[in-house]
Specification:
By secondary structure, the protein is mainly α. It contains six helices and no strands.
């Protein structure tokens, strides 16, 4: 009888260990998922750049795109709107750098970036 009782106690400890391990794995996965979600740019943040461009708030757009690019250096919308704002504010060298990076980062926008670079080069020659 005592042998069976010892076996049941060992099985209970093993079961508690497995439950504890699964609980630890679950907590770790949830924590990692939360951190990943926390570090992802919000859609509101992305829409804000377009809104600032539409409202012609160039200084605010430059600050916002710079802040996003510091956090996410290859963020396509921040590169595009940042470059457009730099062109509009007359900072052509910096704008050219952003559009060059945009052409490297996103193949779908490569033609648009090249077009912007060509326009910047033409404006630079005129000045």
């Amino acid at each position: 009888m005592e042998d069976k009782l010892d076996l049941i106690i060992i099985q209970n400890w093993l079961l508690l260990g497995v439950i504890g391990l699964l609980l630890g794995i679950n907590i770790t996965c949830n924590w990692k998922s939360f951190r990943r979600e926390y570090n992802r740019p919000e859609q509101e943040e992305i829409d804000r750049l377009a809104e600032l461009w539409d409202k012609d708030e160039i200084d605010a757009l430059l600050r916002e795109s710079k802040r996003i690019r510091e956090k996410y250096p290859n963020r396509v919308d921040a590169l595009y709107f940042g470059g457009k704002a730099l062109v509009k504010s007359g900072q052509l060298v910096e704008a050219r750098q952003l559009f060059s990076k945009l052409a490297e980062v996103d193949y779908a926008l490569r033609d648009e970036a090249q077009k912007q670079i060509k326009t910047i080069d033409q404006e630079t020659v005129i000045k």
